[in-house]
Amino acid sequence: MRPQTDTIIDSKPDTRGKVVVEMQHVHKSFGDRDVLTDFNLQLFERENLVILGKSGSGKSVAIKIMVGLLKPDSGSINVLGYDVPNLSNKELNELRLQIGFSFQLSALYDSMSVRENLEFPLKRNLGIYDRQQLNEKVMSALQDVGLESARDMNPAELSGGMKKRIGIARTLILNPKIMLYDEPTAGLDPVTSGEINELILRVRDKYNTSSIIITHDISCARQTSDRIVGLFDGRNKVGGTFDELKKQNAPDLQPFFNY
Amino acid sequence: MKFRKFLIALAEVFRFIKRFFKEAFYPPFEVKETLRQCFLLGNRSLFLIVFTSFLAGIVFTKQSRPSLASFGAESWLPSLVSQAVVRSLGPLITGLICAGKLGSNIGAELASMQVSEQIDAMEVSGTRPYAYLVVSRVLATTLMLPLLVIFADIVALMGSFVMVHAINKTSFTLFINEVSAVVTYLDIFSSLVKSAFFGFAIGIVGSYAGYHSEKGTTGVGKAANTAVVVSMIFIFVIDLVSLQVLTLFRAQ
C-alpha cells in the first residue's frame, strides 16, 4: 500500500527493503484543532526518512503516535508488525524496546549522571546489573557518539550538542531497529548540527537502523535524508529525495529551500 | 461543559489511584527505589519536624496552663498535652509540614520531568515510569509519615516537659507517668494509621499534580502549588473523618 499523498515522487522503488513503519489515514486533533489530517507514511528498512515541516505542523505528534505516547483519533499504525493503537501495555513495551527515541530537549534524567542515564534502560529493561557488563555497554555507546570523557558528568554540565549525543547514546544502548529523531539539530550552531547529522548517518550504518528524522532544518534534511516527506497543516503534501523536491518547486517547500 | 470537564478530571484521578494499587502490589516491585525515596523524603523532613514539634510542645503547654490553673487543675497539664499531642497535634503538624515540604517537592520534581520530556523518555524506553516515579514516592510518604509522627510526638512531649519542668519543677519520671497513664494504645495506633493516610494523600496528590502538569515553567509552579494546597485540604478532611471513626470506637 503506497502512501496517499498529494504528490509523491517514487525515487528508488526497486531498491527499498521491507516496510517497517506504515501509517494510513491517521487523524489526530486536540480539542477543535486538527493536527494530523489523513496522514500517511511508509518507512522502509535502513532508510533515513525526513519529515520536513514548519513548527506546529504536527511532525512530533506523528512520531509520538508511532510509539504510543499519543493515541490517534482514527487511522492505522503498523510498526514492525505491531498494530500500535491496539496493543496491550506489555506488547507496547516490547515494541518500544525496539525503537530509539531522541527527544528535542534530549530528555536526559537530570537527577542521574551520564553513566547512570545510560545504565538505567539496561538495568530496568534487560535486568543487567553486572558492573563490568554495564561499564562495557556504556563505554561502547559513548564511543559511538564520541563522548567517552563525559561518562561521570551530570546533564547540567553538558552543552546542548553533548546532551543530544548522550540522548542518542542512551537509545542506542538497547540496539534499536528504528530510530526516531525529534528535531535533532534544533537550537544548535551549524558546526554542532553538522556533527549531529553525521552521527545520524553513522548510527544508520553501524546499527542498521531505519530512521525518521523530524526537522525544519533544511541542511539537516539534505545531509541525513534518503527521502523527504513534507508535512504542512497536518497533511503530507510532497515526497521525494532532496534533489527531486528542490526541482519540483512545490510552493510549501520553497521557503525552506530559499532560506 | 464545566461539569463534564470536572467529571472527566475526577475519572482521571480515580484511574491514577487505581493504577497505583495495580502497580504497587504486582511485581516487579520497586523495592530499591522505594527505600531510596524513604531515606530521601524522611531525611529531608526530619529536622524541620523535630524543630517545629519541639516548639509546638512548648507553646501548647504554655498556652494551656492558664486555663487549667484557673480551675485549679494545673497538675493535669501533662495529661492534657500528651493526649492532644498524640491524638491530633503530632500527626497534624507532621502532615502539614510534609504537605508543604514533600508535596511541593514531589509535585515540582515530577512536573519538571514532565516538562522536559523525561517521563516520556522513560515511557518510550519501556522503563515503567509510573512504578519508578509514582509508586515509589507514594509508598515512601505512606511509610515515612507514621515514623515521622512518632518522632514528632516524642519531641513535642519533650518540649512540653521542658515547659512543665520550668514552671512546676515536675520531675521527668512523674511527667512520663502522667503521660503513660492517659495515652492509650488506641490513641497511638489510630494516630499512626491516620498519618499513613496523610502520607498517602501527600504522595498521590503530589505525584498526580506533577505527572499531569501543564507544559512550560508555569506548569511546574502550578503543580507544586496544587500539590501543597490540595494535600493540606485532604489532611484536614482525613483528620475529621478519622475523628468521627474514633468517636464511634470509643463510644463502644
Written description of the protein model:
The complex is a heterodimer of chains A (259) and B (252). Chain A has one domain: Rossmann fold. Chain A is built from nine helices and eleven strands. Chain A has helices spanning 59-66, 89-96, 114-126, 131-144, 160-172, 190-207, 218-224, 242-248, 254-258; strands at residues 7-8, 19-30, 33-44, 48-52, 74-79, 82-83, 99-102, 178-182, 210-215, 227-232, 235-240. Chain A has a seven-stranded mixed β-sheet with strand order 1-11-10-4-9-8-7, with helices on both faces. In chain A, 44% of the residues are buried. Chain B is mainly α and 252 residues long. Chain B is 88% helix and 0% strand. Chain B has helices spanning 2-24, 31-70, 77-115, 118-124, 129-168, 172-182, 185-211, 217-251. In chain B, helix 3 packs across helix 6 (172-182). The mean pLDDT of chain B is 91. Classes of the chains: A alpha/beta (259), B mainly alpha (252). At the A-B interface, helix 2, helix 3 and helix 5 of A face helix 4 of B.
Please provide a brief summary of the model:
Chain A has 259 residues and is α/β, with parallel strands linked by helices.
The figure for the number of domains of chain A is 1
Report the span from N to C terminus of chain A: 34 Å
CATH architecture of chain A: 3-Layer(aba) Sandwich
CATH superfamily of chain A: P-loop containing nucleotide triphosphate hydrolases
Structural class of chain A: alpha/beta
Tell me which protein chains meet in the greatest interface and how many residues each side has.
Answer: A-B, 25 and 14 residues
Average pLDDT score of chain B? 91
The residue ranges of chain A in which pLDDT falls below 50 over 5 or more consecutive positions are 1-14
Alpha carbon gap, first and last residue of chain B: 47 Å
Number of helices of chain A: 9
- Beta-strand residue percentage of chain A: 25-35%
Question: What characterizes the major β-sheet of chain A?
Answer: 7 strands, mixed
Q: What integer value in Å does the Rg of chain B equal?
A: 21 Å
Largest sheet of chain B: none
Got a strand count of chain A? 11
Tally of domains of chain B: 1
Count of DSSP helices of chain B?
8
Class inferred from helices and paired strands of chain B: mainly alpha
InterPro entries (chain B): Permease_MalE (IPR030802)
Pfam family, one (chain B): MlaE
Transmembrane segments (chain B): 39-60, 143-168, 188-211, 223-249
Protein name (chain B): Phospholipid/cholesterol/gamma-HCH transport system permease protein
